[in-house]
Amino acid sequence: MIEDKNPQRTSIAQLGEFGLIDHLTKNFEINQPSTLKGIGDDAAVLDFKDKKVIVSTDLLIEGVHFDLAYMPLKHLGYKAVVVNVSDICAMNAKPTQITVSIAVSNRFPLEALDELFAGITHAAREYNVDVIGGDTTSSQKGLIISITAIGEADEEEIVYRNGAKQTDLLVVTGDIGAAYMGLQVLEREKQVFQVNPNSQPDLDAYTYLIERQLKPEARKDVRTLLHALEIKPTSMIDISDGLSSEIMHLCKQSKVGCNLYEDKLPIDPQFINVCEEFNIDSTTVAINGGEDYELLFTIAMEDFEKIKGNPNFTIIGHMTQESEGIHLVTRANTKIALKARGWDALTQ
Amino acid sequence: MIEDKNPQRTSIAQLGEFGLIDHLTKNFEINQPSTLKGIGDDAAVLDFKDKKVIVSTDLLIEGVHFDLAYMPLKHLGYKAVVVNVSDICAMNAKPTQITVSIAVSNRFPLEALDELFAGITHAAREYNVDVIGGDTTSSQKGLIISITAIGEADEEEIVYRNGAKQTDLLVVTGDIGAAYMGLQVLEREKQVFQVNPNSQPDLDAYTYLIERQLKPEARKDVRTLLHALEIKPTSMIDISDGLSSEIMHLCKQSKVGCNLYEDKLPIDPQFINVCEEFNIDSTTVAINGGEDYELLFTIAMEDFEKIKGNPNFTIIGHMTQESEGIHLVTRANTKIALKARGWDALTQ
After folding, report:
1. Cβ separation B347–A135 shorter than 8 A
2. Distance between CA atoms of B78 and A214, rounded to whole angstroms?
3. In angstroms, rounded to a whole number, what is the distance separating the alpha carbons of residues B64 and A139?
4. What is the pLDDT of residues A225-243, one digit of tens each?
5. Residue from the list B44, B88, B138 with its beta carbon closest to the beta carbon of A345
6. Hey, are the CB atoms on B142 and A138 less than 8 Å from each other?
7. A46 CB-side CA count, 13 A
8. Are B63 and A17 in contact (CB < 8 Å)?
9. Fewer Cβ neighbours under 10 Å: the N or C end of chain B?
10. Where does Mg(2+) 3 bind (chains A, B) (predicted)?
């Protein structure tokens, strides 16, 4: 499905480990004042002065988290950075550095790694994070990417998952569900391609959904937006496993309940069309589909006026007493207990 | 070869991702004052005040970096931490936190992961590092471990690879080559076992070598030892890829040459015996065998008296002008140009 635009194949073994590292890391820039020493020693050296340091890490495995049949390597590199940067954003912190480790089987030529690292480099520039270290090795099967993201924040800025109060409003950025439907479209096209490799897919009706799957963005802007509105969320999490699952995390850690309103869910018109085409209930996907990388947070009720009508944010519910449980209030005004059916990497 | 002492097999899919994470991380303790928030949010939060932050990361792949035929999972967990902590020690910094990500295929029962995490927990206690985050997912094949180690140091304490001067002395901690020969012994026993699974190996003559391979230690003590001697190395690196390869790194980055003396190399009597048994030249193994996790550093000549005769350190050579090159001076007093033949994960 992905056309091989570059038929050249240079074996990575030719360069050796250190030659390969030099080659792959030569485009990385150091822009953060907190980076004293990046790649090139036993470890990187950072200086955060009086800021707190935020650290998160993710492991991405071919065949589990991504499928190279429809995921171009450049997009994969970009997305791998985004996924990790998103976790830093979810703490209301500013991403500053990442380390990038990869393991590849020998079926990957140097040109493929160049594509992957072009995506990583592009994301590092876009999010202004310095690539300060990593590891490059061989794998027995497929491609493995491990990224650790580092960020900084003043102590009073940091938002945890456990600060939601009973009367808080539940807010989400952007729209949800599109990344999951993008994946369904790509999976369907993969099946078509396997049956008929000459078919040319017409993906015009699905561009937004596919972009949300293949090139998601982390909401680095939300920290600035909220700061300008003089709002500090009481709790925050990013939506990687699905809205439902993330609401459960906030509720469990904050010891509160929640009412989520079906008619408030922010979904894109293209998403609705494609759910109808696939004959899937759009609400089910919107609350269970993962990989949106939007931010979900709670704010005090008195902040309502500050956020009302802001196109970046949608109020989708409110928190309640823990004993009231966690519910979806449907359009028909019935309450359904919410279940976490989020994406679970271990049962794939 | 490794006896299955625990025939119970609990499928990890039964617990689900979050259940598994809760189970595996329940024994992790937070002891470092710099850890404000460990596992349980989108990211960890650390506070290093006026210290600099040191970051290093490593990826360990089954079949490339370790062989579960002779590597017990508990030892593997321990070693995975040690390998990363060693990089922090090589900056003359104090290790403080680690993140641990793992990917496992479904052939691993929960009991196997418990063994792995018992080793990780043991090492975390031994080196006093807090496990502050990670990721747990499934792999298509085998076990993958990705660890990021974090440490702290005052700016003036940090030792880079590039500070060696022309007249500096070259010093190594402990002894070298043993881990490599331990691996040879284990590989031989694996072959024997494959031919005759009932054979009982007698490994008494190899205990030190095998321990160096299966349970190496990071030289966390060297920072304190050098501090007490009032010595600050001019450059430092840890020996993961082999002495020869690491000397090349120091020389290249410091723009100096080096004379390494064969008769000064610190090697263990058991190592010499086993090299003879395997009919391998002990000097070749001592300078090219990897995974010793000792520290290699340079000190100013005027520090000679402070370090002379100290059982923790061996002066094995001295730096020279860059134009003189990098040589091994043999017992027969001939100079041989040193080649980096270190362990290269990409050509395995």
Report:
1. no
2. 37
3. 7
4. 999 999 999 999 999 999 9
5. B138
6. no
7. 38
8. no
9. C
10. 42, 87, 238
Q: Do residue A136 and residue A259 come from a single domain?
A: no
Whether residues A64 and B37 touch (CB distance < 8 A) is answered with no
Q: How far is A242 from chain B (nearest CA, A)?
A: 14
Q: Which residues of chain A have pLDDT under 70?
A: 1-7, 340-348
Question: What does each C-alpha distance from B341 to A26, A282, B144, B267, B318 come to in angstroms?
Answer: 24, 59, 26, 19, 21
pLDDT tens track, chain B, 348 positions: 455 555 678 888 778 777 888 889 988 999 999 999 999 999 999 999 999 999 999 999 999 999 999 899 999 999 999 999 999 999 999 999 999 999 999 889 999 999 999 999 999 999 999 999 999 999 989 999 999 999 999 999 999 999 999 999 999 999 999 999 999 999 999 998 888 888 877 888 999 999 999 999 999 999 999 999 999 999 999 999 999 999 999 999 999 999 999 999 999 999 999 999 999 999 999 999 999 999 999 999 999 999 999 999 999 999 999 999 999 999 999 999 997 665 444 443
Residue numbers in the known binding site of B are 42, 56-58, 65, 87, 134-135, 161, 238, 240-241, 291, 343
Residue of B nearest to A342 (CA): B17
Q: Is residue A7 part of a domain?
A: no
Distance CA A157, CA A176 (A): 26
Q: How long is chain B?
A: 348
Sheet of A144-153, strand order: A130-138, A94-104, A144-153, A52-61, B44-46, B35-37
Instruction: Output the six-digit token pair for B191.
Output: 């072959």
Last residue of a domain, which of A104, A130, A157? A157
pLDDT of residue A4: 54
> Would the CB atoms of A90 and B43 count as touching at under 8 Å?
yes
Task: State how far residue A205 is from chain B, nearest Cα, in angstroms.
Answer: 33
Looking at the fold, whether B175 and B149 belong to one and the same domain comes out as no
Q: Which ipTM score applies to this complex?
A: 0.91
Instruction: Give the separation between CA A290 and CA A242, rounded to whole angstroms.
Output: 4
Instruction: Say yes or no: A151 and A208 in one domain.
Output: no
Q: Which residue type does A317 have?
A: G
Give yes or no: residues A219 and A109 share one domain.
no
CA dihedral sign, ordered B131, B133, B136, B139: negative
For residue B211, tell me if it sits in a domain: yes
Enclosing H/E stretch for B192: helix B178-195
A146: nearest CB among B37, B91, B146: B146
Strands B169-173 and B295-299: antiparallel
CATH of the domain at A214: 3.90.650.10
| Same-domain status, A122 and A255 | no
Beta strands in chain B (DSSP E): 35-37, 44-46, 52-61, 94-104, 130-138, 144-153, 169-173, 235-238, 257-261, 295-299, 313-320, 326-329, 335-337
Residue B54 is nearest to which of A43, A50, A141, comparing CB atoms?
A43
Please report whether residue A1 resides in a domain.
no
The reply to whether A134 sits in an annotated binding site is yes
**Residue B343, pLDDT score:** 46
Residue B94 sits in which domain range?
12-156
Which pLDDT score is estimated for A5? 54
Q: How many domains does chain B have?
A: 2
With contact defined as beta carbons under 8 Å apart, do A268 and A180 qualify?
no
